[in-house]
């Protein structure tokens, strides 16, 4: 009977792990598709979620072996989905993490004392799990912040300056476009910033956007972007790799013209 019990427990463990692997593969593909639709790279997601790049990549690829315990995976999926504008809590709740059940049978008096599991031990176990989740989250956030700072320092060394003005001064036009008659710009905010967007000379948007916002505008002739915090704005022109607009706390203006050549 003990052998049969161990066999059933082993089959349940394999079944749960298989469910987790299949569910992670499906959820990772959905997150990857949503990220690409928004024109965001994994490095940009690191800045938005403060989750290390290797863990984000493992989630998208459904690589269960590269990720921590299931309860932590669920928390990472929630942060990932929230950063993409999804309902993270609802989205992550479908990932199976397993449950611990206590069965009290009438034959309890025949059970050896060493196998008893008092209720207070299970409550202590749950408390330890919650405490561990908080600790891991802080550790991951600290590592992600350090990695983001290192990437930002390297980016400042290699990045070409789009505009050198500290005030709203006209700048030279940048001729980049997907097709000869249109230009597209994507903005990703790493910090709360005031933004003004002019599409073909008309104000399309003006206001303060929160951290994590991603918006895209298109124009037939030209696009102009103004901000009071260039360091908190990542700019992607015609779906190319996003670059930081300028220095933190500085006002900047950039105008991108469509390529009118035939």
Q: What brief labels describe this structure?
A:
262 residues; alpha+beta; 434 Repressor (Amino-terminal Domain); 5-stranded mixed beta sheet
Would you give an account of this structure?
This protein is of the alpha+beta class and 262 residues long. Among the domains are: 12-94, 434 Repressor (Amino-terminal Domain), CATH 1.10.260; 183-257, no CATH class. The protein contains six helices and nine strands. The chain has helices at residues 2-37, 42-49, 53-61, 70-83, 88-92, 119-158; strands spanning 174-175, 183-189, 193-199, 202-209, 214-219, 222-227, 233-237, 243-244, 252-257. Helix 1 (2-37) packs across helix 3 (53-61) and helix 2 (42-49) crosses helix 6 (119-158). The radius of gyration is 25 Å and the shape is elongated. Mean pLDDT is 78; it is low at 100-117 and 161-178.
Estimate percent helicity. Answer: 40-55%
**Averaging pLDDT over every residue, what do you get?**
78
The secondary-structure class comes to: alpha+beta
CATH superfamily of the domain at 12-94: lambda repressor-like DNA-binding domains
Q: What is the succession of H and E elements?
A: HHHHHHEEEEEEEEE
* Spatial strand sequence of the major β-sheet: 1-9-6-3-4
Low-pLDDT parts are 100-117, 161-178
**Strand residue content:** 15-25%
Radius of gyration: 25 Å
Separation, N- and C-terminal Cα atoms: 81 Å
| DSSP summary: helix tally | 6
């Amino acid at each position: 009977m003990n052998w049969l019990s161990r066999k059933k427990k082993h089959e349940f463990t394999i079944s749960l792990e298989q469910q987790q692997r299949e569910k992670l593969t499906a959820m990772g593909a959905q997150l990857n598709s949503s990220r690409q639709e928004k024109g965001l790279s994994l490095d940009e997601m690191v800045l938005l979620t403060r989750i290390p790049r290797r863990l984000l990549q493992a989630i998208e690829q459904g690589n269960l072996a590269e990720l921590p315990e299931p309860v932590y995976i669920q928390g990472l999926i929630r942060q990932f989905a929230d950063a993409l504008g999804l309902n993270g809590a609802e989205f992550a709740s479908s990932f199976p993490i397993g449950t611990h059940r206590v069965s009290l049978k009438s034959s309890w008096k025949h059970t050896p004392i060493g196998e008893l599991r008092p209720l207070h031990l299970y409550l202590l176990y749950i408390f330890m799990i919650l405490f561990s989740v908080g600790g891991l989250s802080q550790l991951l956030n600290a590592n992600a912040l350090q990695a983001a700072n290192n990437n930002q320092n390297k980016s400042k060394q290699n990045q070409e300056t789009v505009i050198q003005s500290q005030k709203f001064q006209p700048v030279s036009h940048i001729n980049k476009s997907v097709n000869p008659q249109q230009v597209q710009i994507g903005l990703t905010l790493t910090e709360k910033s005031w933004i003004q967007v002019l599409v073909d000379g008309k104000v399309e948007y003006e206001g303060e956007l929160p951290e994590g916002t991603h918006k895209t505008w298109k124009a037939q002739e030209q696009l102009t972007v103004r901000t009071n915090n260039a360091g908190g704005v990542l700019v992607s022109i015609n779906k190319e790799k996003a670059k930081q607009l300028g220095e933190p706390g500085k006002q900047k203006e950039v105008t991108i013209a469509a390529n009118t050549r035939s």
